[in-house]
Structures are given as C-alpha cells and as structure tokens.
C-alpha cells in the first residue's frame, strides 16, 4: 500500500470514527436517561398501594 | 375577490412581521433601559474587568464580571473543541462517504440531538456525567469545566453537523468528479476540493454553534458548579454569565444595583450573540455570492 493510499484510508477512517463517537455519545445519553427514568415506573397493570389492600 | 384575498394576505403577513420586529425591539429596549443605569454608579471598566462578584455584600458590594465572562468563554471554547471535530467529521462522512441508506438514517438521528430540551442535557450531566467524571479522575467535584464542555459540546454537535452537511451538499458534483478524474484519492478530494469549497458554510455553522454555546443557560446552571472563579484546570468549577442571571435574578430587589447588574450582564450577552450572528450572516452571505 502506498503512502497516498494509506493517507486515504486513514482520513476516511478518522471521519467514520467521528460519526461513531457522536453516535456512541447519543446512545449513552439516551440509554442513561431512559434507564433512570423508566426505573421508577411500575409496569404492573394494577399496582397495589400500601394501605389500600 | 382574488385581489381582496391577496391584499388581506399581504396585510396579515405585514402585521405579523411588524409585530415580531416590534416585540424584539421592545425586549432589547427594556433590557437596555434596566441595565444602562448601573453605569451611573459603577464604571464600565470596573464592571467588565473587576475580578470580584459579590453583589450582595452589605457594605461594599462588588460587581466585577471578569471571572464570569472568562467562565463563559472557557466553557464555550471547550464545547467547540469537542463539537467541531465531531460535528464536522460526521457531516463530511455523511455527505461524502456514507451510502444513501446510512445518510438517511444518520442525519435525522444527529438532528434529533438538537430537539432534546437543554434541561434533559443538564440532568444527564448532573446525574450521570458529573459523578462518573468525579470517580474517574478522582477529583472533588464532577461539576466542572470538563463536564460543562462535554455537555455543551454534545448540544452543539447537531448544529455544526447539520449546517456543515448542508454546506457540503451544495458543492457542485462536477468539482468532485473533476478531482477524482485527475487522479486524486477520495480523501484528497474531500480535504483539498470539497471542504475548501464549503468553507464559508462550515465557518458559519461553527459561529452559530458558538452563539448557541455561549447563550446556553440551563446546562451551565446545572453542570458548571457555580463558583465565580477563573478555573485553573479543567476540573475546577466555574460560573458563566448566563447561569449567574438565572441563579440570582429571583433574589434581587427590583431597581437595586444587583438587579441592574444582571441586566447589564444580559446586555453584554446580547452584544456577544448579536455580533456573532451578524458575523455568521456576513460569512453565509459571502458564500451565497461566491
């Protein structure tokens, strides 16, 4: 592989890496917000509250 | 009848345009009217370059915003350091390398980031990023310049990516084809032909990102830590101009110096964003004429 070809591959790889990092940040952001938010919701259809039987 | 409809439509749009301009001028006027009287008591140089911000000190209140201004600029600079490579790299990849299917998915997904309310970013920074940064770097607080820059950067990425992608997509196809036909590699075509041709649009997107970052309030209020000092490292807390207004306005007495000083900060922010937006418009107009 010549130096030009190597530079071409490296440049394109760098751009792909930037998109990948952006996507990863977005995923981490959404995952942590949803994980924390959904963690407090009870998914039972008829939740039994204390004191109401 | 058609003539009547046309005239009515023109009148309605004229009134709507006039109303929005009047409303904007009203806001600007009231901000200046409340802020300018501060300078009868405090010198402008003392306000801009003073290092002490103690507006509620009983005997000798201090209204120096230098630390707050530097805090704002550092947070914005940090955000751009993160957002420019990510946004621009993503834009170039989507525009020049990605296939049509990936492009159709990636661009809306990145633009989705812009639709998320800033308080959600702030919440993420406060509840997830700050504790993680504190543990990872073993520092006293995660609410610091680093966390603020990362969250602000994440907010600015979609602006830079979306606008840069638009600028890149307007570069004529013939330029790319000519470059490739002359034997240039795709990377050489991107770096020496396409990006220079879209330069003014890219610069415009970065300037718009700057304006967005420096004007952001909720994220910096939640993540910056709130200490009115010039951070000596990226692990120090800071307090930008916007969060000072948001945090202190509720405590002021209408018409006193503290109240007026917050309006004076608003004037400074207005001038910074106005100049940035004007500059962006000029850069983008230049692109249109080129």
Give your account of this protein's structure.
The complex is a heterodimer of chains A (53) and B (290). With 53 residues, chain A is mostly helical. Helix content of chain A is 68%, strand content 0%. Chain A has one helix spanning 3-38. The longest helix of chain A is centred in the middle third of the chain and has 36 residues, at 3-38. The radius of gyration of chain A is 23 Å and the shape is rod-shaped. The mean pLDDT of chain A is 83. Chain B is mainly α and 290 residues long. Helix content of chain B is 75%, strand content 1%. Chain B contains 12 helices and 2 strands; from the N terminus they run ααββαααααααααα. Chain B has helices at residues 2-35, 44-49, 66-97, 100-115, 118-137, 145-169, 173-181, 186-197, 199-215, 218-223, 241-248, 257-289; strands spanning 53-54, 62-63. In chain B, helix 3 (66-97) runs antiparallel to helix 9 and helix 7 packs antiparallel against helix 8. The longest helix of chain B has 34 residues, at 2-35. Chain B is globular. Chain B starts with a helix and ends with a helix.
List strands and helices in order, with pairings.
The complex is a heterodimer of chains A (53) and B (290).
Chain A (H helix, E strand, L loop, with lengths): L2 H36 L15
Chain B lengths: L1 H34 L8 H6 L3 E2 L7 E2 L2 H32 L2 H16 L2 H20 L7 H25 L3 H9 L4 H12 L1 H17 L2 H6 L17 H8 L8 H33 L1
Helix pairs in contact in B: 1-12, 3-6, 3-9, 4-6, 5-6, 6-9, 7-8, 9-12, 11-12
Q: Give the amount of beta strand of chain A, in percent.
A: under 5%
Query: H/E series of chain A, N to C?
Result: H
- Helix and strand run of chain B: HHEEHHHHHHHHHH
Number of strands of chain A: 0
Number of strands of chain B: 2
Structural class of chain A: mainly alpha
Unreliable stretches of chain B (pLDDT < 50, length at least 5) are: none
The largest pleated sheet of chain B is described as: 2 strands, antiparallel
Most extensive chain contact? Answer: A-B, 22 and 32 residues
The average pLDDT of chain B is 91
Order of strands in the sheet with the most strands of chain B? 1-2
Q: What percentage of the residues of chain B does DSSP assign to strands (E)? A: under 5%
Q: How many individual helices of chain A?
A: 1
The average pLDDT of chain A is 83
Total of DSSP H or I helical runs spanning 4+ residues of chain B: 12
Span between termini of chain A? 75 Å
General form of chain A? rod-shaped
């Amino acid at each position: 592989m010549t130096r030009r070809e190597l530079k071409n591959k490296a440049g394109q790889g760098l751009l792909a890496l930037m998109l990948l990092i952006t996507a990863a940040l977005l995923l981490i952001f959404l995952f942590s917000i949803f994980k924390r938010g959904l963690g407090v919701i009870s998914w039972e259809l008829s939740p039994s509250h204390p004191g109401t039987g | 009848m058609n003539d009547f409809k046309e005239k009515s439509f023109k009148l309605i749009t004229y009134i709507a345009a006039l109303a929005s301009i009047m409303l904007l001028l009203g806001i600007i006027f009231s901000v200046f009217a409340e802020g300018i009287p501060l300078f009868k008591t405090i010198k402008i140089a003392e306000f801009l370059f003073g290092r002490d911000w103690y507006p509620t000190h009983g005997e000798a209140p201090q209204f120096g915003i230098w630390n707050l201004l530097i805090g704002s600029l550092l947070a914005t600079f940090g955000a751009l350091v993160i957002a420019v490579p990510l946004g621009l790299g993503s834009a170039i990849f989507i525009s020049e390398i990605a296939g049509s299917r990936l492009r159709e998915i990636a661009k809306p997904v990145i633009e989705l980031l812009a639709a998320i309310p800033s308080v959600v970013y702030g919440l993420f920074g406060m509840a997830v990023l700050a504790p993680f940064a504190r543990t990872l770097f073993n520092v006293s607080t995660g609410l610091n310049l680093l966390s603020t820059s990362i969250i602000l950067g994440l907010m600015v990425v979609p602006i830079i990516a979306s606008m840069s992608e638009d600028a890149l997509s307007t570069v004529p196809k013939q330029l790319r084809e000519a470059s490739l036909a002359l034997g240039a590699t795709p990377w050489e075509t991107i770096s020496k032909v396409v990006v220079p041709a879209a330069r003014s649009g890219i610069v415009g997107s970065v300037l718009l990102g700057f304006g967005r970052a420096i004007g952001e309030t909720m994220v910096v209020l939640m993540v910056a830590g709130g200490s009115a000092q010039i951070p000596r490292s990226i692990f120090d807390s800071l307090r930008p101009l916007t969060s000072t207004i948001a945090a202190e306005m509720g405590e002021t007495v209408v018409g006193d110096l503290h109240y007026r000083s917050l309006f004076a900060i608003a004037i400074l922010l207005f001038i910074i964003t106005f100049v940035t937006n004007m500059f962006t418009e000029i850069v983008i107009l230049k692109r249109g004429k080129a």
